[in-house]
Amino acid sequence: MELITPVSPEKAYFDKKIVFLAGPIKGAPDWQSQAVKDLADLDIYVANPRRENVMNFNLDLQVNWESRFLGLADVIMFWIPPKVADVAGRDYAQTSRFELAEWLAKTNYNQTQKKVVVGIDDAFFGKSYIVKRLEAENVRVYDTYAETVNTVHSLLKSGGRVFFTSDTHFGSERAMTLSRRPFQSVKEMDESLILNWNNEVGSDDVVYHLGDFGDLNARPCLHGKIHLILGNYETDVLKENPSFYEQLDKCFESVSEHTALTLKNGETVWLTHKPSDCKRDMFNLFGHIHGLKKVSINGLNVGVDCNYFRPVGEDDVLFFKNAILNHYDHEVFL
To answer: Is 162-333 in CATH node 3.30.160.270?
Structure first.
C-alpha cells in the first residue's frame, strides 16, 4: 500500500488501484488512519484527504486535489462515524453528505466499475433518511466500520474481467471533428475518454483495443492490461517507420493484426479492425467505421463512437451476439 495525501509529490498514479477515503474530517475521529492500516496488505494507493498539518491551508488546492483523486479512484469509501466534537459554523459531515450524493450520481448508483461503498454509524443523526433514499437505488449502507472496510478490501482485490474498444484516436482533432464527437476540444475529448475508460475498467482487467488508439501518451493514464489489434493508423505509421513497433510493444501487452479469442462461456470471436477483414464463419468484433453502424449480420462494432465513448464489457458482447444471431430480423441489417 502506498499513501497519497494532499502534500504528496506530483506524479501519475495509474499503475495501481486507488481507494479514496471520503467522509468527515472536522469534528470526526481520525478513522482514516485506521483505514490506511486496514488496507495496508493490498498493492494499492490510498488517497487520504486528512492533513497532518493544517497550517497554510489552501482551500482551492485541497478541493482540486480531492476532485482529482475522487475521479481517479477505483473505490470511494464513505464512512461517517459518530461526531466527537462540535465545529462552530458548520453541521457535522455537511461536505461528506454533498460528496456522497455527487459521486453516487456520477457512478449511476454503482453501475460503473468505480464503486462507492457507504457506511454510516447508527449514532449519526439523519442516517435513517439516507438509508431510505439509497434503498430505492439498491445501494447498501453498512452499519459498522468493519463491514465497510471489509467490503472495500474485497472490491479492491477483484478484477480479471474482459473489455473491448476501438478507435479512441487520442489526441486527434480530425477524428473529433469528422466523427462529430460532442466535445469542445481535443483535451476535453481525451479527458472524457480516459475517465469513461477508468470508470469501467479496473487495474486487473483486460482490454482488447481493436485499433486506431491514437496518441500513445494516453496509455499510462488508462487502467487495465491492454492488447492492441493494429488499426489502419498504426499500420500506416509502421509502413513509414517500422521501428514504431518497438513503441507499441512497450505500451501494450501484445500487438497483433487480428486474433481469435475464446470468451468466458466457451464461445470464440474474431477480433479485427476493419469490417472487411471479418470472418464469415465466426462472430466478429470490429471497429474502423466509428458510429456509422453498430451491428452487422455476424458482428458487433465496439468502437467508442457507438458505445457512449466507453469500452464494451464481455457480458454486453455476449448479449449482442445472442441478439444478432437469434433475435434480430433482416430489417436490422439492411
So the answer is: no
